[in-house]
Amino acid sequence: MKALKAIGAGTIQQLAYIGGLTAQFWSGISVLPRILPIFGKRGRWRAALRQMYAIGVEALPMVAIVSACEDSSLRFRAPPS
Questions:
Q1: What's the mean pLDDT in 46-60?
Q2: H, E, C per residue of the chain
Q3: CB 63 within 8 A of CB 56
Q4: CB-based contacts of 33: which residues, under 8 Å, 6+ apart?
Q5: CB–CB of 32/39 below 8 Å?
């Protein structure tokens, strides 16, 4: 009986986990029409484009710095040829 009880407890725990993931998925899907500019308010396009610009174009100096640091770090780690 103990083995059957352990199997049942594990099964219930896994089903509860899957149920929680499903609930989280559907709550995220239900919010999308209010968040995304494609489905939601038309005024969000301006904010979305501003965010894309800030993340993409204005991040180029930081990307260049990180790339240069990574390149120099890889040069020191490379075995001599």
A1: 82
A2: CHHHHHHHHHHHHHHHHHHHHHHHHHHHHHHHHHHCCCCCCCCHHHHHHHHHHHHHCCCHHHHHHHHHHHHHHHHHHCCCC
A3: no
A4: 39, 40
A5: yes
The upper half-sphere exposure of residue 79, i.e. CA atoms within 13 Å in the direction of its Cβ, equals 1
pLDDT in tens, 26-40: 998 888 777 776 666
40: CB partners within 8 A, 6+ apart: 33, 34
User: 0.90 exceeded by the pTM?
Assistant: no
Total residues belonging to the chain: 81
CB 37 within 8 A of CB 31: no
Show the tokens assigned to 6.
């352990």
Q: Which residue has the tokens 């103990």?
A: 2
Both tokens of residue 21? 């993931």
